[in-house]
Amino acid sequence: MEVVGLATGRVTGPLSVEPIYEETKAGNPMMTLVVRADSGYTDRDGNFNSRPQFVAVKFFGGEAKRLLQYSLGMGDLIDISVTIGGREYQGKYYNDVMGESFRLLDKASGKAAPQSMPKVNMPDMPKPKRFDMPKDDDLPF
Q1: Which value, in Å, is the radius of gyration of the alpha carbons in the chain?
Q2: How far is 65 from 77, CA to CA, in rounded Å?
Q3: Number of domains composing the chain
Q4: Which of 18, 31, 102, 129 could serve as 59's disulfide partner, Cβ 3.0–4.6 Å?
Q5: Alpha carbon distance 44, 132 (integer Å)
């Protein structure tokens, strides 16, 4: 089955909270990783302002179970290949960031890592470009 129209990308950064393992209503495993992905903007005076963005990435099924092997913890640096989708529920729209594959880059939490890390096919992707905020921004945040 081919899925068309979903955005794909990569989220890289340290885990900002401990991983959250749950089961869906159907009993399937689900793991949520919250990654701090630093970004920033240039203000009206030309100064670059850095601010963290927190991205919750959900893994389902076998990938969620495989994440348990890594004893991940807050501060571990991880690189995740993601698919971004959305859904409508009662007239409101919600985004979903689903993990497809991952690579553990650095074990900062002090927990023991597995002896051998499986090879994961991660496509090379360009780094995101810096986003400059529009000068007429009227957002309340």
Answers
A1: 17
A2: 19
A3: 1
A4: 31
A5: 10
* Enclosing domain of residue 35: 7-106
Q: What are phi and psi of 59, to 5 degrees?
A: -115, 145
| CATH number of the domain to which 23 belongs | 2.40.50.140
12 and 79 in contact (C-beta within 8 Å)?
yes
Burial 96-118 (b: 16+ CB within 10 A, else e): ebbbbebbbeebebeeeeeeeee
Band of residue 110 on the pLDDT scale cut at 50, 70, 90? low
pLDDT tens track for 31-59: 999 999 888 888 899 888 888 889 999 99
Whether 35 maps to a domain, the answer reads yes
